[in-house]
Write a structure and sequence with these properties.
By secondary structure, the protein is α/β, with parallel strands linked by helices. The protein has one domain: D-Maltodextrin-Binding Protein, domain 2 (3-Layer(aba) Sandwich), CATH 3.40.190. The protein has helices at 11-17, 37-51, 62-74, 90-93, 106-110, 114-119; strands spanning 5-7, 27-33, 54-60, 82-86, 121-122, 125-126, 129-130.
């Protein structure tokens, strides 16, 4: 089984959706499985340096990510701005994802294996970003 982590909603997209001015401090909350945290920390650090915003991680064991995010989606909650999930769960969470098509530029696509690009797409829309 492929065990790739995908960003359900990319940090860049989350940043674009903020209405806060550059002077306002914003905290992004990211759901991540404990074993994948190290993959996200470098991007979070760069994001914080470039924007002045902060990133807070909610670390849960791999087996709890699906349940935690499912419960959040079922209640219409918004505890997480970004979630990193296993690629095998993409279709389950697709109805709750924002399309990321604008982020998949030719440069991004050329930098990824074709199978990763294909896995990021559900129903013709990109809903995950390989990490």
């Amino acid at each position: 089984m492929k065990n790739l982590s995908f960003v359900l909603v990319a940090l860049v997209l989350a940043l674009l959706s903020f209405t806060a001015s550059a002077q306002d401090s914003v905290t992004l909350t990211v759901l991540v499985e404990q074993g994948g945290l190290w993959l996200q920390e470098a991007a979070a650090k760069q994001f914080e340096e470039e924007t002045g915003h902060t990133v807070e991680f909610v670390n849960v064991p791999y087996g709890s990510v699906f349940d935690r995010l499912s419960a959040e989606m079922a209640t219409g909650g918004a505890a997480f701005d970004v979630a990193t999930i296993d690629v095998v769960w993409m279709s389950h969470f697709a109805p709750f994802a924002e399309p990321l098509d604008d982020l998949f530029t030719d440069e991004v696509v050329d930098d990824l294996f074709a199978s990763l690009v294909a896995d990021a797409q559900i129903g013709g829309a990109y809903i995950g970003m390989p990490t």
